[in-house]
Each structure stands twice: as C-alpha cells, then as structure tokens.
Specification:
The structure holds 2 protein chains of 2 kinds. Chain A is α+β, with helices and mostly antiparallel strands. Helix content of chain A is about 30%, strand content about 30%. Chain A has a 10-stranded mixed β-sheet, sandwiched between helices. In chain A, strands 5, 6, 15, 16, 17, 18 and 19 form a 7-stranded antiparallel β-sheet that branches. Chain A is elongated, with a radius of gyration of 26 Å. By secondary structure, chain B is α+β, with helices and mostly antiparallel strands. Helices cover about 25% and strands about 25% of the residues of chain B. Chain B has 4 helices and 4 strands, in the order αββααββα. Chain B has a 4-stranded antiparallel β-sheet with strand order 1-2-4-3. In chain B, strand 1 (about 10-15) and strand 2 (about 20-25) form a beta hairpin. The chains are: A alpha+beta, B alpha+beta.
Chain lengths: ~450, ~100
Amino acid sequence: MTTTVLVPSGVLGLGFSQAALERGIAQGCDVIAIDGGSTDSGPHSLGTGLSKYSRAVCKAEWCALMQARAKLGVPLIIGTAGTSGTDSTVDWMYEITCELAAELAQTLRVARLYSGQDAGFVISKLAAGQVTPLSPAPEIDAERLRAMTNIVALAGAEQVQAALETGADIIIAGRTTDTAIIAALPLARGEHPGACWHGAKIAECGALCSTHPGTGVIRVTFDKTGFEVEPMAPEAACTPHSVSAHMLYENSDPFRLYEPGGYLDVRQAHYSALDARRVRVEGSEWVAGPYTVKLEGARLAGYQTMLLAILREAHYIANAQVWAGKLVSVLSARVAEQIGLAIGDFSIELRLIGVNAAMGALETRKSLPSEVGALCLITAGTQAMADEIGRLANPFLLHMPLTDDEPLPTFAFPYSPAQTSRGAVYEFALNHLMALDSPMEAFRLELNEVGSRADVA
Amino acid sequence: MPMLRDLVRKVAAKNAGPFQVTVDVFCGSAEAYTRVAPALSDSAVADLFGVEPQLLRRFDIPDLHVIKFSMPRPVVQGSRLDRDMHGAQFASLLEELVI
C-alpha cells in the first residue's frame, strides 16, 4: 500500500496549469492538498485577518479543485487558508466553499480547523512556563499578548489528521506548517515518517522542485521506505538535483526541518532518478521530540502616510543623503513645535530610491543615479495625525534647499494630491514555541454539511 | 579582484520566516565550489550584513555545490524600518562581495 498526494500549486491564488491538473486527476490520488498562504508578504494579513489574494481568483482556482475532488472522491485540504490562516480567513474560505457548493450542486461535509489563539490562553501558557522564545524573539508579556490583533499557532499533522478522521470531504485549515497538510494522510496510513515529512517539504511549493515551476502541479507517492515525486506537466521534470536543492528553499537549516513533535533530518537522504522526470528519495529520518507548536502574532504598529518627490537636479542628486538628513531633522522639530507631538509619538523616514532604498545602511555601491526618488514614510498613532504630519511635510519635501543661502528648489511630485494615506501598519510580535498537553489542546474543529440540500452559511 | 557573482552561477536570498534570512550561493560546478568555499569568509559575510558573527550560520553542501548562510534578519520582516519585504535583495548585496 502507498499514499499519493496531489499538490496543484505552491499556493491557492498563484495559478496552475489546468492540463497538468487533469493529468494528475487521471492518474488518481488519495488526497489533494494545497497551501493557502505564508508570512512571506509581511504582517498585514495576520494583522488584519484578511487574505492578500483576489477573492475571484481564489474562488476560480478552488472551483477547479472542488471539481477535481468530486471526480476523484478524495479529501481536499487547504492549509493556512486566506494567507495568514486566522479564524476570519478560514471563515472567508468557508464562505467561498459554500457559494461554490451551491453553484456546483455539490453536497459536502466541510471541516474547519481553527488555529486562532485566544490571548488569555497563551497568557496562561506563558505563566505556566510553556511558552519559550526562539532566536531572535520579540519581548512578550500579558499586556503585549492582549494587544495583538491576531495570534495563531501552526498546526501539524496531528490536527489535520483529526480533521481527516471526521470523514470531511473538504478541510479548511487555519495556520498550519507548510508540510502538515501533505504529510498528514501518509503518516496516518503508516508510511515511512521521514519520507512523509521530507516528501511534504519537497512538494509544498508545487512544481518549484521541478524544472518548470510555473506549471504548478506535483504528485508525490509515499511508501514504507521512501517517496517518489513527479511533476504533472509533461514538459517539466524532477531531477535528483532539483529535488535535493528544494530543502534549501526558505529554510535556515538545509538538513533539519522542525515540525510539531520533532524534526526531519535529511542528512542521509539519497536521491535517485527513476527516469528523466521522476525522483525517488530514501534515507530521511523523523526524530521525535516534545510536542510544541510555533506561534505567530501581529500587533498594530501605527498608521502611515507617504509622499514621494523626484529629485533630478544634479546638485541635489549629488547631495541627496545630506539633504534627506536635514529634511528629517527640520520636519521632526516642526512637528514637535507646531503640532505639539512628543518625539517618540511619530516617525518620519526618508528612503532614497536610486541611492540606498533597498539596502539602507548596508548599501555598498557608490554611484550617482540619473534621478533620486525621495520616499517619505510618516508613522503616527492615528491616520488623522499621520495625514496632518504629511500636510506639514509637503512644502518642505517640495522646496527645502540644501543650505539657507541658495535658491529654493522645486522637486517633482508625480501626482496630486502629493500624499497617500496607507492605513494601519502591523508588526510581527511573536517568534515563540508553545508546549501542548495534547495536539488538539490549542485547535478547534467544526464540521458542517453544506451545499444544495443543506443550509448555506 | 573578482566579485562573487563573477565566480558563481547565482546567489539567492529569501526569508526563512519573519525573523531570519537565508542566502544560498549556487556555485554551479565542483570547480567553482572548490575555489569559492574557502575564499568566502564568514566574517566578511557577517560584516556585509551587519550581523554579529556568532549569529551567522554557514552550511557547506558539496553535493549541491551550494554554500548557505542563515542569519537573523538585519531588520525584522515587515517592521516599520524594513525596506525589502521578501528579503530577496540581500542576495544582490552578497553577489557584489569582492573575493
């Protein structure tokens, strides 16, 4: 007996080849699993509890997967639904699923696995010494935990298995590790644990482990001694090199991958080509350890307004950094004087595009660009205050001279009005592990029947 | 003196979660790997990224001709002072390191 997982792409919303998906359906599988997000785009999704991708695009892709699921009669799982896997994004995905069930005339059992953490629960775990910082970790205490807009724990295979055990047709999981949704069924069916986790890591980004990442669809088969991986697009190939190199991806340690309950060790993994397109891997080991889950949390860090001025005058290009330093000092002093804010209650940052906007103080290149973009980012406690500081900054960004003895310049504002309100900005506020007494201690499962003959949510 | 990018196939950087960045030097061949690995010093890399040397982790992977560096992100991803949300431009800094 073996277990086959079909992974349509690295994330719902990014697209996959429909032809490749159909080839995967034709070959059959035991479960279809797709990731719904990551922290890669920053803290905004976790802060707000909103998906970063277009609802229409996610719905269109999910529609194709719901049809595949119905055709094969196997479970369909999405992990980290709606980019950050908060309770609200799980419900967002559930709403899309209910709409599609009605449109496709499907009657389904849908399980929702919630990863959202109540601050009070994490506080009690912290008091009990069951929350430990990773490195580096922000400082936390009860007050900071209560101030976070969302906290999630990353579910592992055990929680996804609990969802599978309900017999659900579709599982919408909140935040999970990238691998858990793929490893869950093979582990439950007794396939080789090292192979389950390693194969899951290789497959979690879809066809990124192949020669043609854009085609999306990957098929992984797990057995008692290893796993085999094949891309479904005929023009794509998995090679021992492309597969082994995937352990490098987004991973601090290329040989170890930590999951709830232990870690994967791939140092003895052996990769062999079954043919020009398929790879078999054996020798990965799962090392069991204490049951901990990683925590992620976001807190509100203020509200922002931005302005952009383009400097093309040679004199200002040559002295851009001095000018920028002077501008920030002058503006900060004016805000304190004329608006009356304390220095710690706002920030004004000027990033010079064309000089060092990407690298900041780490920049090593020294050359003069044709023009400089002065990107002014203002952060304050309310949008109204950030906007007010923006209005104060406006004439200075446009006209401030390098010295008092020279004529006023006029730089280029690319559009009117010159300032743009950016809204709330968030920061990641947790990088911690939480020990659990049992895998489901921090997670919740809800099961509903949805579709043409049931109540639509 | 050559830059790293003159000697290797590719340098790629990515976030490994919001608090760490990982940079992979794909040497492209055994010859390039043998030449670059001893010449690429941990202290030069730590210095370039402004991280304390004891926080820089290095993995030499001869089977893949890859040298990996992992470190705490110079600025936490998405914090107010972060300039590169995906952490990918750090690679372009390393590839210009003179070896």
